[in-house]
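Team,

Forwarding the record for the chain on the shared tracking sheet. I've put the sequence and predicted structure together so nobody has to dig through attachments.
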Amino acid sequence: MGGRQVLVARRLLAETLDGELPEHERVLAARAVVAELGSPGRLLELIAELASGEGDPAGCALLSYRHVLGFDKLLLIDGGHRHMLRAHVWHPGTGAAGKEDVHNHRSALASCIVRGRLAMELYEAGGDGVAADRYEETLSDGTGDWLLAPAGREPLRLTQVGQYTAGSSYALPAHTLHRAWCDTDAPTVTLFLETGAGRRRHTDVFTVAGPHPGAVPKVPLDVPDYLAALDDLAELLRNSYA
């Protein structure tokens, strides 16, 4: 299902990442895949093809939304429990004072910075760090909304600070605590891949910003809004590559 670029991307994901890989090998393979798919001409062709209605617009729209942490999350290819390929459009001004909560993921991830610049901090829990409220985040069975269960307080220690510019990439094991934000005054675009069948049941979220609500709604895009968002992204990429 899909046009030429969609089929080629699906085949690359399957050939590289399907099967039982140790996590450290999966992380390296995922980084290589997003770097290849995120190259300027190739990604623009894929986005433009999807914006024309190829792929699975109805299914992908249901899993695309404005993320609570301040970026547009557009699903491009849904590989089910094996891998999910998304475009993230980060908006300037959503980081700054609050940035996003420190968190980890359900499976290994890799990301390629396509446009703009992303700042990132890595953390470790415990030790002599700053005390933070910890939550276990799960997804509701019915709606996929985020559910946050308080899990006490725990110190967080900053271990690394970095900046990633267009053309660079990174990859992280599932348990790695981190936060990232748009580090420019113009939109940043990243190609993001979560991969691996052994997904964790919950993620860990840490915050020093005060209590969080127990549930945060996730509002999916409808198909016309999803296709319009892809069309806008394609135009943004064309202008970036011009």
